[in-house]
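User: Can you predict the 3D structure for this chain?
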Amino acid sequence: AAQGFQCFLLDGVTGSGKTEVYLRGIEKVLEAGRQSLVLVPEIGLTPQLLERFQRRFQVPVALLHSGLSDGERLRAFTAASDGTAAIVIGTRSAIFAPLARPGLIVADEEHDPSYKQQEGWRYSARDLAVWRARELGVPLVLGSATPSLESIENARSGRYTRLVLPSRTGVAGQPRVSLIDLRQHVAREGLTQPLLAAIRRHLDAGGQVLIYLNRRGYAPVLMCPGCGEVVECRRCDARMVLHQQRGLLICHHCGRERPVPAQCPECAAELKAVGQGTERLERALAAAFPDQQIERIDRDTTRRRGEIERRLRRVRDEEARILMGTQMLTKGHDFPRVTLVGIVDADQGLFGSDFRSAERLAQSFVQVAGRAGRAQHPGEVCLQTMFPEHPLLRVLINEGYAQFATLALEERRQAGWPPFACLALLRVEASQRPQVFGFLQEAAALAREQAPAGLNVLGPASAPMERRAGRYRGQLLLQAGSRRELQQLLPAWREAVAGIETQRRVRWSLDIDPVDLF
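Assistant: Here is the predicted structure, written as C-alpha cells:
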C-alpha cells in the first residue's frame, strides 16, 4: 500500500493463508511504530486469533468484545487510546476503539452479517471500517473466502483493490464434494448410511470429522400424529423448539419457555418430536459411534464464559474425534485434523424469501466445506439434500463461489437489488396490528409525496414473521438507484415520519442498508 487510504479485498479460499497476510501487514505497521485494529465477526474467534498473535508478536494486545466486564473493557479502551496496545482485536463494537497511532485496519470474514448491529443504534462495522480508514488515512484489508457481493462489485468497479489467494497452503488442495440424495437414501435420526460409512472411514484413517447442522435443540417441531396439532409459541408466529435435555419447549425468537406437555391438549394422544436439531443429532452420533468422544458446539453448550475455548481445545488436542454444531463452527476456525465435513441438511435457505438467501447459503456452504482438509490432509465433504439437481448447489460444487457470485450479481443487476440499488427499511411494531399499518400507510403516503424520480416505495407489508414477542410487525421499503437519490428523501421524510400523530403508539426504526428484510 502506498501512503494514505487504500481498501484491499483479500479474496482467498479457505486455508490459503489470509491470516498470514494480516500478520505480515501488521508486522510492517509495528516496525513503523503504529497500531493495528483487527475486527472479527464472533467472540469465539478472538481467543484463537489472540493466541496466534501473541505467539508471533511480543507486544501488548487489547481485546474488545461484549463478553468482557466493564472494567476489562475500560482497560482495553485505555490501552488502545494511549498507545499501550500495539494491536487491538475485537468484534463489531471495536470499530469505535480510539487509536493513538493508527496504521492499519483489518476486517476478517468481511461478508459476515454479524458485523451489522441490528438493534438499538444500527450500524455496519465493516462499512464503518471503510469510512474510518479513509478518515485516518490508513490502509484497510477486508478478508474472506466468500466475499459479499457488495465488496466484489466494489472491487470490479475499482473502488477496492482485489487480491486473490486461489490455492490452499500445503498439498491437500480443495476437498472433494459428494451429494447424498435423500430421496434414495433414508435418513434415520438425520443420518444416512453413506454419511455414516464416510464417518467411519475417516475415523479409521485417523482423521477427525465435523458434522454441521444449523439448528440447535432436539427437534424444531413437537406435533400430534393423531390430529396434526403443532405446539406453537403463544407470543410469536413460530413453533416452539424441543430442548429435551432441559425438558423444555423454547421459542428461539422471544425466548419464552414452557414445560413439555405430557400429551396433546386437543386429543390427548402422545406428542412426537419431528425433525433434527444438534441435540438429537449428538445422540444419534453417540449411538452410532459409542467408542468416540463427541464435542457439540452451539449456543446451548457454550453459554458459560470460556466454554467454547475449552471445547475447541479438546478438538485440537484430539480428545474428541467428532465435532458437531451450528454456524459457530463455520467462521474462521482451523481444524488441521478434520478430513470429513458432513452437512446434514443442505436445503435450508434454498428457497428463502429474502433476496440474500442464495448468497447466505453459498457462503455458509463454502465456509463449512472449507473446514475439511488442511495442510497435508486431503478432505471430503458429504452433503445430504432432497434437491441434488438444484442449480445453486450445482454451480457451487462444479464451478465454485466466484462463478456463483458472477451469476448472482447479474441477477441482482436485472432485479435492481443491492449492490445496484440502495435500500432503507422502515420497521414498525406495536401491540395491535391496525396501529402498525395505520402508521405505515401514513409514512408511505409521505414518502410518495416527497420521493424524487427513480425512487420506489414498496409496501407497507407484514414482516415475514408478523407477530413476535406479542407485538405485530410491519415494514416499508425504499429502493433507490443511487445513494444520492435516497439521501434526497431521507432527512425531510424522517422528520415528517417523526411528526405522525400516531407515532407514540408504535415503536419504529429506520435501517439504512438492511442486511435482511425481517
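The chain has a mean pLDDT of 92. The CA atoms of residues 46 and 151 lie 24 Å apart.
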